[in-house]
């Protein structure tokens, strides 16, 4: 049985999780990891001796010659790592946000498509059972064409003043509520509604962070008349875990959704889904599909298995490609520009 | 090898107290409001005990220390209870790991002056160098930090949370599991427990590694929710199990409320399980559940 030789660049929180998940895939062999922390590498070398460890990603690529890479470095390094992988014809899964610059994202999208290399970005909601169901309902016209929407995300990521600074403290490196949290809420809009034609009315707040935003809100406008708002707060201690919330309104009804379930309100009975006029509740337990190996949510397993199975030619769905990552990147940078225009302090 | 002590058939869980509901954030919020006052938690425990439950599973979260103190301070009333701690409280570490990376975060928990967990006295500052490359020693220290609050209670099994078990399971490293189990037996005279969402795979690995006399706790329910890879593999694994080697405990038996209790427990009763952990907050639900479980 063919096995994909895979490397992981960056063994932070996501790298550690991705290692565990993809190592369970019967047709993947993790051959090497790279990280700047000597301690992390020493521990890995001791307990997982089959995996080679490197301090330098280029050395990993040149020496271990992986066919596929999972890139989980701080976001500002994604571009150079992906570029080097491209030169060596390596398939890449890059964590979100895809890059810290829209032009870099476009460049990577163009390059990887030109060589038909498998490329994927880690917007994991595109693999969540609830959001996949919502997308299907919208596509099937369950509530008609969406006229208005709200995409919100809350987490208790930053809840006190930082004691020390890391890459997460600066936007240049990919830090801040927009890059880290809002990126998911924006990508969900792109996934379910489409890429907005105009961004306006953006504002940001700082609560604890010195250099980056803790809260962002913005308005998305579409040529077809649809409009929506984005509201993201990563300093909300009323949330134990990160929560995505989506509200979609159309002429035939409305949908409320989060990662755990959805509610559908319809003006008339719907034959296809069997939903009645009025409120209908769908829980995750009604629509989940199990995964072969579970670490932290079905969607995390599903996204990495999709990457591996795409390389193996077993899955042709092309979910969350660099092209999708580029679309979300564009919106992110439009939001930054719009916030600057709206600021009265500068 | 001495025979593994039998675990309690019915164990009272804690998710309902701490705003955890996998199906509904709204429901979780309501519960978290209700149990904001810790006296309301004690009242529910008293109802559970009145209805014949003698065992408690409690995660080492922010509020667990106070709960442990309460039970310890009222030993004459609660001395007969068996405890099933689960460690760690993952969210405590999640953000730290995000900020700094996993090993610096562990370093902070163990050695920082500001650490509320207070193991500083145990090791001189800069002691991390001693543990360099030795994840096992780090693991033992983290266990000590988390288990400290249960001291003086009758601890029967010490569980590791599924987020850690399943993460490590993916790395396919025997040593960490082996050393954990040995440490729990020796230092705490308790049975090692592992919580997982991958029961068939974990059990296969434990057998392969020769690790026995372990309690495995896993989501087990009629609809296959949080059961990887699938329900059929679970049923086979459970029914083939030798309970002198592995005692199996079911959690999420109602799949967060998706299955009516009667239906849920007729499925559970049909399996060769040793124990069920469940959480409920009303006397009616507690009574009903106790009456439905026949292992």
Structure description:
The complex is a heterodimer of chains A (346) and B (295). With 346 residues, chain A is α/β, with parallel strands linked by helices. Chain A has 2 domains: 4-124 and 297-321, NAD(P)-binding Rossmann-like Domain (Rossmann fold, 3-Layer(aba) Sandwich); 125-296 and 329-342, Dihydrodipicolinate Reductase, domain 2. Chain A contains 10 helices and 14 strands. Chain A has helices spanning 13-22, 38-47, 57-64, 78-87, 102-114, 129-139, 177-192, 284-287, 298-311, 322-342, and strands at residues 4-9, 28-34, 52-54, 68-71, 91-94, 119-121, 148-154, 198-205, 215-221, 227-233, 243-250, 253-258, 261-266, 278-283. In chain A, the strands form 2 sheets. Chain A has an 8-stranded mixed β-sheet with strand order 8-9-10-7-11-12-13-14. Chain A has a 6-stranded parallel β-sheet with strand order 3-2-1-4-5-6, sandwiched between helices. In chain A, strand 11 (243-250) and strand 12 form a beta hairpin. Chain A starts with a strand and ends with a helix. The mean pLDDT of chain A is 95. Chain B starts with 9 loop residues before the first strand and ends with a helix. In chain B, helix 12 links the parallel strand 6 and strand 7. An 8-stranded parallel β-sheet of chain B has the order 1-8-7-6-5-4-3-2. Mean pLDDT of chain B is 87; it is low at 113-127. Chain B has 295 residues and is an alpha/beta fold. Chain B has 14 helices and 8 strands. Chain B has helices at residues 25-34, 38-50, 64-73, 75-78, 90-100, 102-111, 128-131, 135-147, 162-171, 174-188, 199-209, 231-240, 261-269, 283-292, and strands spanning 10-12, 55-59, 82-87, 157-160, 191-196, 214-219, 246-251, 275-278. Chain B has one domain: NADP-dependent oxidoreductase domain (TIM Barrel, Alpha-Beta Barrel), CATH 3.20.20.100. Chains A and B meet through helix 1, helix 2 and helix 8 of A and helix 5, helix 6 and helix 9 of B.
């Amino acid at each position: 049985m063919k096995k994909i030789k895979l490397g992981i660049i960056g063994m932070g929180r996501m790298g550690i999780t991705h290692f565990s998940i993809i190592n369970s895939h019967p047709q993947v062999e993790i051959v090497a990891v790279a990280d700047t922390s000597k301690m992390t590498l020493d521990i890995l070398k001791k307990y997982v001796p089959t995996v080679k460890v490197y301090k330098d990603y280029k050395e990993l690529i040149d020496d271990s010659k992986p066919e596929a890479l999972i890139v989980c470095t701080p976001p500002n390094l994604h571009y150079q790592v992906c570029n080097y992988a491209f030169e060596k014809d390596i398939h890449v899964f890059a964590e979100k946000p895809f890059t810290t610059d829209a032009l870099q994202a476009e460049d990577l999208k163009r390059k990887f498509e030109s060589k038909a290399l498998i490329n994927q970005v880690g917007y994991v909601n595109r693999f969540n059972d609830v959001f996949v169901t919502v997308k299907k309902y919208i596509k099937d016209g369950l509530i008609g064409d969406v006229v208005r929407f709200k995409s919100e995300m809350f987490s208790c990521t930053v809840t006190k003043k930082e004691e020390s600074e890391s890459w997460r403290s600066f936007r240049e490196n990919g830090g801040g509520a927009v890059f880290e949290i809002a990126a998911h809420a924006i990508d969900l809009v792109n996934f379910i509604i489409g890429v907005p034609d105009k961004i306006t009315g953006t504002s940001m707040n700082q609560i604890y962070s010195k250099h980056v935003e803790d809260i962002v809100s913005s308005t998305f406008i579409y040529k077809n008349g649809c409009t929506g708002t984005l509201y993201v707060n990563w300093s909300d201690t009323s949330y134990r875990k990160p929560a995505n919330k989506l509200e979609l309104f159309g002429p035939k009804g409305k949908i409320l959704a989060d990662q755990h379930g959805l509610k559908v309100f319809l003006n008339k009975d719907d034959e296809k889904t069997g939903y009645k006029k009025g409120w209908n509740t769908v829980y995750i337990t009604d629509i989940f599909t199990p995964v072969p190996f579970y670490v932290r949510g079905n969607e995390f397993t599903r996204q990495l298995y999709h990457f591996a199975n795409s390389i193996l030619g077993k899955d042709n769905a092309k979910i969350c490609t660099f092209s999708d990552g580029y679309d979300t990147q564009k919106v992110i940078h439009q939001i930054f520009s719009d916030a600057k225009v709206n600021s009265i302090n500068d | 090898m001495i025979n593994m002590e039998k675990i309690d058939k019915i164990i009272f869980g804690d998710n309902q107290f701490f705003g955890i509901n996998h199906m509904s954030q709204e429901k979780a919020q309501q519960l978290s409001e209700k149990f904001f006052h810790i006296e309301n938690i004690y009242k529910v425990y008293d109802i559970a005990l009145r209805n014949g439950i003698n065992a408690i599973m409690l995660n080492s979260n922010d509020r667990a220390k106070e709960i442990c103190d309460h039970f310890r301070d009222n030993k004459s009333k609660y001395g007969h209870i068996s405890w099933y701690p689960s460690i760690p409280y993952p969210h405590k570490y999640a953000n730290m790991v995000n900020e700094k990376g996993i090993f610096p975060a562990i370093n902070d928990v163990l050695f920082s002056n500001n650490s509320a967990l207070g193991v500083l006295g145990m090791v001189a500052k800069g002691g991390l160098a001693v543990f360099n490359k030795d994840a096992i020693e780090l693991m033992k220290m983290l266990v000590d930090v988390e288990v400290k609050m249960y001291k003086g209670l009758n601890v029967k099994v010490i569980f590791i949370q599924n987020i850690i078990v399943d993460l490590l399971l993916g790395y396919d490293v025997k040593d960490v599991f082996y050393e954990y189990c040995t440490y729990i037996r020796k230092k705490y005279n308790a049975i090692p427990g592992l919580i997982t969402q991958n029961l068939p795979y974990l059990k296969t690995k434990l057998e392969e590694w020769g690790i026995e006399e372990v309690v495995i706790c896993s989501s087990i329910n009629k609809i296959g929710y949080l059961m990887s890879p699938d329900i059929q593999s679970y049923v086979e694994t459970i029914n083939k199990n030798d309970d002198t080697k592995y005692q199996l405990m079911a959690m999420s038996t109602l799949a967060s409320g998706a299955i009516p209790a009667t239906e849920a427990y007729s499925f559970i009763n049909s399996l060769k399980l040793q124990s069920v952990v469940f959480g409920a907050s009303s006397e009616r639900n507690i009574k009903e559940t106790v009456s439905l479980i026949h292992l």
